[in-house]
Amino acid sequence: MTEVHLGHRFGDVLVTVLDVDGQPLSDREVTVEQRAHDFSFGNIGFELIALASGESDEAAGLADLWLDVFNTATLPFYWGPFEPQRGRPDTERLHRAAKWFVDRGCRVKGHPLLWHTLTADWLREASTDEVEAAVRARIRREVADFADVVDAWDAINEAVIMPVFANERQRNAITRLAWERGRIATVRLAFDEARAADPAATLLINDFDLSTAYECLIEGVLAAGIRVDAIGLQTHMHQGYWGEEKTLAILDRFARFGLPIHLTETSLVSGTVMPPEIEDLNDYQPESWPSTPAGEQRQADEIVRHYRLLLSHPCVQAITYWGLSDDGAWLGAPSGLVRADGTPKPAYDALRALLKQEWWLAPTKLRTDDAGRVHIRGFLGDYLLQHADHTASVAVSAPGMSRTRARLRPRSEHGHQAAATWR
Fold first, then answer.
1. pLDDT at residue 422 above 90?
2. Ordered domains of the chain (ranges, CATH)
3. Of 120, 159, 206, 232, which is the most buried if we count CB atoms within 10 A?
């Protein structure tokens, strides 16, 4: 097993604690506790949309499990389901869902703005010029309508195969657009429109094809002057855990572009793994695909190894696990961290132990010195200092030692600590 080092994920802050009058609070006991991670530990929020939008409260238990571990929600903007009838997008409902996550201190990412799969079928007979105009308008509309709650987007998804995804009989409007305009021009279209609608948004190029074809596309995109904020890598491991050596080699290949890396779609199964000869994961459709005790223990061990390795790489900025529950999981795979009956699997407990114990500072009592200083060491993120009924916010924002001053305020002045954004 590859040895991993996480020192770059931790920092030290020497805090001078000031009382309400701005004087150093010397020789007093203070409590420090972590409130949020800077790192983006994500999961899809698809399963919670009905609850978050106020349509149903059936998923309340699942929401508690989700919020106890994750700080970033990916929400679905697949064009076909989002706008089944032209001019009637599902904006209001999804906006309510996004705000529900934001109100609970989470970041929200939209997935995706442009993709050839699950696209609007009503565009099929339109001319290519009409398709391009509709795509541009759709991207501007979604990014602008959700700018207050969504701060990151998969601007384009799976552009490597987009022009050649299907034969002529199956080709839809988006594959035709990419075929006629070319990959780089199509990528530019998506990024330009999204950037114009929200210049502060984090925009990703995202793909499952992690071959040299994706590297060549990224090279061409960057050479064309298109500004990409992060590279998205999909890592659905339905055919078994890739292992540290393979995963690290992939990370290093894409790290050469000098951009943050987001692991946008990660999954590990807790049952029988998919046969290796399956080329397209969508082609594997067993009658049943149950989670098993042995598979659940394997999944737990693998998720710890995977997350440790990903965090050891300095370019990795975000990880999104693809689904909390087995109920409705992609391809029917037992890839969730929670069983279909709502009970957590060992993988959920193992991941929670990493994020909320090993990489989390529990409430700790410290004593200020004569100059009112305390030393905080912890995972990069937001912290809260408390003395009596007064508090102060402190950020551990970079590896190494830094110094700051924190003035105590009445506790009522400190609300919920929002998670950091990518901006």
1. no
2. 7-35+363-413 (2.60.40.10), 39-358 (3.20.20.80)
3. 232
